[in-house]
């Protein structure tokens, strides 16, 4: 049997419209507010968890890439309900960071206790089902999409969410 083609691949149940933000930490309040509005009706604990993780991922995109360092840098947010029990959040940055997100591992206990930063991905790792990243253009540093999956209780999905209609 042949592997599924992109046209046969499973589609999200609900796909919120992408949101584009200027690459500035001053936009973080807007990112949080938009996300909370988009997730209205979901379990409040889930919403708080997604907003917290989204804050970390947005801030990382702004701090470590051209999204926040270059004139006109931007961050794209996407959100979808990929299955009845799975919410997928992602941010895509403008590239220029030269690396990929990684949880730091080579620290001693004293170094962890003294560290001011670089703990956000540990938070992501512990609050999500799973997370990861992919280069938007593997041959160049044109941006990275960092995503996180969250468990959703299917009975807690609000009524009235409109599925995105894909046309082929």
UniProtKB/TrEMBL annotation:
This is ATP-binding protein. It comes from Nocardiopsis tropica. InterPro entries: Anti-sigma-factor_SerPK, HATPase_C_sf, HATPase_dom. Residues 24-130 form the Histidine kinase/HSP90-like ATPase domain. GO terms for molecular function: ATP binding. The keyword Kinase applies. The keyword Zinc does not apply. CDD domains: HATPase_RsbW-like. It comes from the Bacteria. Keywords: ATP-binding, Kinase, Nucleotide-binding, Serine/threonine-protein kinase, Transferase. Transmembrane segments: none annotated.
């Amino acid at each position: 049997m042949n592997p599924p083609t992109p046209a046969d691949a499973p589609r999200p149940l609900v796909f919120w419209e992408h949101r584009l933000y200027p690459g500035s930490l001053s936009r973080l309040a807007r990112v949080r507010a938009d996300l909370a509005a988009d997730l209205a009706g979901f379990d409040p604990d889930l919403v708080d968890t997604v907003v917290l993780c989204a804050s970390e991922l947005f801030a990382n995109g702004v701090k470590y890439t051209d999204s926040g360092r270059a004139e006109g840098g931007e961050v794209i947010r996407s959100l979808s309900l990929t299955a009845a029990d799975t919410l997928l959040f992602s941010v895509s940055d403008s590239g220029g960071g030269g690396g990929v997100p990684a949880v730091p591992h080579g620290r001693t206990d004293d170094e962890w206790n003294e560290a001011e930063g670089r703990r956000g991905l540990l938070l992501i790792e512990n609050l999500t089902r799973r997370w990861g990243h992919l280069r938007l253009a593997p041959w160049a540093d044109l941006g990275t999409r960092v995503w996180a999956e969250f468990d959703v209780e299917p009975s807690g999905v609000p009524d009235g969410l409109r599925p995105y209609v894909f046309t082929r």
